[in-house]
Design a protein that fits this description.
Keywords: Membrane, Transmembrane, Transmembrane helix. This is CcoQ/FixQ family Cbb3-type cytochrome c oxidase assembly chaperone. It is built from three helices and no strands. It has 61 residues and is an all-alpha fold. The protein has a domain of 25 residues. The chain starts with a helix and ends in a 12-residue tail after the last helix.
């Protein structure tokens, strides 16, 4: 099965750029995520981390 897919992909011109683009998108996303995590304000992190424990926002039905 892999042999068929590999031979079929070789016949498409310009396909060698797609793995490079996907690697750059993947790398860029995680670099951006790490940058956001390290630069996020402590107050925002504390506020968001307490959302599941905050029972005052839930309404009784």
């Amino acid at each position: 099965m892999l042999k068929f897919v590999k031979n079929h992909m070789d016949s498409i011109s310009g396909i060698e750029i797609y793995p490079i683009i996907s690697l750059l998108i993947f790398f860029g996303f995680f670099v951006g995520l790490f940058w956001w995590v390290f630069t996020a304000k402590k107050d925002y992190i504390d506020k968001v981390s307490n959302i599941p424990l905050d029972n005052q926002n839930q309404t009784e039905l």
